[in-house]
Design goal:
The chain has 11 helices and 3 strands, in the order H-E-H-H-E-H-H-H-E-H-H-H-H-H. With 309 residues, the protein is mainly alpha-helical. Helix 3 packs antiparallel against helix 4 and helix 9 runs antiparallel to helix 10.
Length: 309
């Protein structure tokens, strides 16, 4: 589609994080370090899971894919975000804005679905350990990943096919650090009430439903373990605590932004930064620092790499 023929403006102005030059420089250094840690941490997990023979279980296969989604989700917005901090005039083209929103919802929707698959994996591992290998087959794992990509694509395209044809005629100012659906829709030169409701139903309810399903699955696991053994409950709590932390920090800002996307809230920028910068970093921190098997596998790979020189 020819976006230029559909709109009377060709770029948006991003307000970003205002402040003094010293404060902008501080934000730049902070975002640069966080993004660098996100990329390095998630790449390290992906490489370790791929090349370590000790991490060939379904859980680590799903974890490697989660790291990929986290890294891609952060890459969609963060590099442009901290680059804009060094510019006085921050703009993004109309096509760039649409591309940013498409990939953000693609990877975000895919990650939500994959987290549900990871919860199912933990349910089978804890509640049905004797049947774990037969249930969590390679075919099912590949099906989980393909289903995650499919849901993410449908989730993103279902909104973009409507947004991409909107006429934009100003004001072309987005009060955020990157393009996002609720703020971009407000700039359209037509009544978007129905479209706003659709965004709430699509993004907001998807996030809320996935979050509730995950919490219910964890509750079922804990109840099942508790009924079997009180000693097993503490172990299950330790295993699930990392998942619960990731899920809470991932879905919390997302639900708040998209369940009430068109209400005025001064903390939207903070939630946006948390969702796109902080959350993708939690995965390598939580799963790497708290997982003994992962740390052992990383040491062995490092030793093999050094000895091969």
């Amino acid at each position: 589609m020819d976006l230029m023929n559909k709109s009377t403006i060709y770029e948006f102005v991003l307000i970003g994080l205002s402040g003094s030059w010293e404060l902008q420089l501080f934000y730049f250094i902070l975002f640069f370090m966080l993004y660098g840690a996100t990329v390095v941490g998630n790449l390290l997990i992906m490489v370790t899971v791929t090349f370590s023979s000790h991490l060939n279980s379904p859980m680590y296969f799903l974890l490697g894919n989660l790291s990929f989604f986290d890294m891609c989700l952060s890459t969609v917005t963060t590099p442009k975000m901290f680059a804009d901090l060094l510019r006085k005039h921050r703009t993004i083209s109309l096509q760039g804005c649409m591309t940013q929103m498409f990939f953000m919802h693609l990877f975000g929707g895919s990650e939500m679905t994959l987290l549900i698959a990871m919860a199912f994996d933990r349910y089978v591992a804890i509640c049905k350990p004797l049947h774990y290998t037969s249930i969590m087959s390679h075919r099912l794992l590949y099906g989980f990943v393909l289903f995650s990509w499919t849901i993410g694509f449908i989730h993103s395209m279902s909104q973009m096919v409507l947004i991409i044809n909107l006429p934009f005629c100003g004001p072309c100012v987005i009060d955020n650090l990157f393009c996002d659906l609720p703020l971009v829709i407000k700039l359209a030169c037509k009544d978007t009430y129905i479209l706003e409701l659709f965004v709430i139903a699509d993004s907001g309810l998807l996030s809320l439903i996935c979050f509730i399903l995950l919490l219910l699955s964890y509750a079922v696991i804990l109840i099942t373990v508790h009924n079997r053994s009180s000693r097993g409950l503490s172990k299950a709590l330790s295993t699930l605590s990392a998942h619960i932390i990731v899920v809470t920090f991932f879905f919390g800002p997302c639900i708040f932004i998209y369940a009430w996307p068109f209400s005025s809230f001064s903390g939207t920028k903070i939630l946006s930064v948390f969702y796109t910068v902080i959350t993708p970093l939690l995965n390598p921190i939580i799963y790497t620092l708290r997982n003994q098997e992962m740390k052992v596998a990383m040491r062995k790979l490092r030793t093999q790499h050094v000895s091969s020189r």
